[in-house]
Amino acid sequence: QVQLVESGGGLVQPGGSLQLSCVASGSVFGGNTMGWYRQASGKEREFVAHVTNNGRTTYGDSVRGRFTISRDYVKNTVTLQMNSAKVEDTAVYYCKFRDNQNYWGQGTQVTVAA
Prior knowledge:
Blueprint: E1 2-7, E2 10-12, E3 18-26, E4 33-39, E5 46-52, E6 57-59, E7 67-72, E8 77-82, E9 91-98, E10 102-104, E11 108-112
């Protein structure tokens, strides 16, 4: 089993920055991918970004160029740096850990508003 704890959500103004973090604990071994998804009210869950165990990153079209994902393999932490925030970035952000199955965090609310 893998447990995920997210932090860093909150309120940010349009154009501002926010950083989300997720710590994985438990049966964390090599060969996994960590990343972020988000779900806005009334919409389906959307892929944001992920980073593989060998450092390869992938971004969703809506965040590419504005968000940066990084990973600390010693601390089993993944961080999402959100820059140039837009109102449409408002959502609950979920951390995901994938090895031979998927694990999800509890979610953290991000609100982008003036």
